[in-house]
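Whether sequence alone determines local backbone shape is best considered at the level of individual chains. Part of our work consisted of pairing the sequence of a single chain with a tokenised description of its backbone. This step matters because it turns folding into a mapping between discrete strings. For completeness, the protein is quoted in full, as a sequence line and a line of structure tokens:

_____
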Amino acid sequence: MKALYKASATTTGGRAGHVKSDDGVIDMKLELPKDLGGNGGAFTNPEQLFAAGYSACFGSALQHVAKEKKVDIGTDFDVRATVGIGKHPELGGFLLEVVLDVILPGIDEEVGEELINEAHEVCPYSRATEDNIDVTLNLMV
């Protein structure tokens, strides 16, 4: 693959550390959520950052598929990514799971299902997670 764009970020100190992107746009403290035994507070964490990236990327994949199919989904649609983390039941360590809830106002349910399923096929985040983590797609009506 020839990369069209590359992004880079460096984290110092792990989940309760600090992350900064190479261009300085992201420059923030991280904190382990209380649910995972951390301090929580008004700080982000890897799961929130992953959810933000996945929801944005999936939304763009949805726009791409809709455009190819000549379906106008407008700009009022929403993609909510919920990222869960838990212990791996067999191997130890941790696993992620993702639920993508998609709202497509004014789009027929059958067409909406087709769009989100095809978007899942072309989204780079979906491809990266394929056969690695559980991803659930929900068309919210």
Q: What stands out?
A: The domain at 1-44 is CATH 2.20.25.10 (N-terminal domain of TfIIb).
